[in-house]
Amino acid sequence: MGFLGVLLPIFGIFVLGFIGQKKFKLDTKSISTMALYLMSPFLVFRTFYSAEFTINYFYLFLFTIVLCLSLILVVYIISFFAIIQSLKQAA
Predict the structure, then answer these.
(1) Segment (H or E) for 25
(2) pTM, full prediction
(3) Rounded distance, CA 43 to CA 23, Å?
(4) Residues of the chain below pLDDT 70
(5) DSSP calls for 28-75
(6) How far apart are CA 32 and CA 36, in angstroms?
(7) C-beta of residue 75 within 8 angstroms of C-beta of residue 86
(8) What CA–CA distance (Å, rounded) separates 40 from 32?
(9) CB 20 within 8 A of CB 26
C-alpha cells in the first residue's frame, strides 16, 4: 500500500493536468512559475518542519562543505601548475 500511496497522487496530478490542458487550454508558463516560486517554499518549509534532525544531517552538511572546499582547492592547484589565467581559472 505504501508504494501505491505514493504513486496514485502523482498519477492523479498528471491526469488532472492532462484533462485541464485538453479541456481548458491552460497557460503552462504561469502555472509552472507559480509552482516553482510559490509552492516549492511551502513544500520545503513543511518538510523541514516535520523532519526530526539527527546528527546525520550535520554530517551531511559538513561533508558538503568539505567537498566544495576541496574541489575549489583542486582547481586552484591545477591552475597554478598549468599556469592558467585567472579568467579561465574561474570558468
Answers:
(1) none
(2) 0.47
(3) 28
(4) 1, 84-91
(5) HHHHHHHIIIIIHHHHHHHHHHHPPP-HHHHHHHHHHHHHHHHHHHHH
(6) 6
(7) no
(8) 11
(9) yes
